[in-house]
């Protein structure tokens, strides 16, 4: 069996199956990128809930795995050279798992880089902007008297949705076939509806291509499973 003892995170969150990929995450829009990908690929893995509401992502054991103190992160006991490897940052995890399995990323160089461009678009724009909008709609920001900061993220979210909607015109997925570009983005668009209740303020119903794309994504059993992994504490 692989020895994962050199990773301090395994002392805080012990692995029951050291031969399986270890996932450290929470069912947030960022976290579910990794769990959906793992469900889609069929790789055997063991999920560990990192309770971000209790600041567990700042635990020294987790920070030893991800110095940024953010979920998700993984340990693959069978890395590229046969030794365990840690991977952090959700975009890097998606690319790593796609390359490891040969799934959900095109083999042609041109389509591969187009797919990566949309992954980085999600990482650099969709995630940060939608996340800030969520702060102003659901958490501390909703109590700010000055609504100008909220409006800034409403306007920018609409701009980003327009980019997605135009890309999806006449196609089922962001880059031809279903890929890590869709996996990266689905959880965040779904959060606008399910977590942030932003449908009305963003006029989401106006983005018909996104609506159809989101429906196709949510119809995938692996997506439905991944959205709930790791399961939150009762």
From TrEMBL:
Superkingdom, taxonomy of origin: Bacteria
The record, for Pfam families, names:
GST_C, GST_N
| Residue ranges of every copy of the GST N-terminal domain listed in the record | 18-105
Locate the transmembrane regions by residue number: none
GST C-terminal domain ranges (all copies):
108-234
Which Gene3D superfamilies does the annotation name? 1.20.1050.10, Glutaredoxin (3.40.30.10)
Spell out the SUPFAM superfamilies in the cross-references. GST C-terminal domain-like (SSF47616), Thioredoxin-like (SSF52833)
Family annotation (InterPro entries): Glutathione-S-Trfase_C-like (IPR010987), Glutathione-S-Trfase_C_sf (IPR036282), Glutathione_S-Trfase (IPR040079), Glutathione_S-Trfase_N (IPR004045), GST_C (IPR004046), Thioredoxin-like_sf (IPR036249)
PANTHER family in UniProt: DISULFIDE-BOND OXIDOREDUCTASE YFCG (PTHR44051:SF19), GLUTATHIONE S-TRANSFERASE-RELATED (PTHR44051)
The similarity annotation says: Belongs to the GST superfamily.
Identify this protein by name. Answer: Glutathione S-transferase N-terminal domain-containing protein
Q: Which organism is it from?
A: Pseudochrobactrum kiredjianiae
């Amino acid at each position: 069996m692989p020895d994962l003892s050199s990773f301090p995170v395994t002392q805080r969150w012990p692995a029951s199956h050291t031969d399986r990929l270890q996932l450290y995450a929470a069912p947030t829009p960022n976290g579910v990128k990794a769990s959906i990908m793992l469900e889609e690929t069929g790789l055997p893995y063991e999920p560990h809930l990192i309770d971000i509401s209790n600041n567990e992502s700042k635990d020294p054991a987790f920070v030893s795995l991800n110095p940024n103190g953010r979920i998700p992160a993984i340990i693959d006991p069978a890395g590229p050279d046969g030794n365990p490897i840690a991977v952090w940052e959700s975009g890097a995890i998606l690319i790593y798992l796609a390359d490891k399995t040969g799934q959900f990323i095109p083999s042609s160089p041109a389509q591969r880089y187009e797919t990566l461009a949309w992954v980085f678009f999600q990482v650099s724009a969709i995630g940060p902007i939608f996340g800030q909008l969520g702060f102003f709609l659901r958490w501390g920001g909703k109590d700010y008297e000055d609504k100008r900061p909220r409006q800034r993220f409403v306007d920018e979210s609409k701009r980003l949705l327009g980019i997605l909607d135009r890309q999806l015109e006449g196609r089922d997925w962001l880059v031809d076939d279903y890929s890590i570009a869709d996996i990266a983005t689905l959880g965040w668009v779904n959060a606008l509806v399910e977590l942030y209740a932003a449908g009305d303020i963003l006029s989401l119903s106006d983005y018909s291509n996104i609506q159809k794309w989101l429906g196709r994504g949510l119809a995938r059993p692996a997506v439905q499973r991944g959205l709930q992994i790791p399961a939150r504490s009762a």
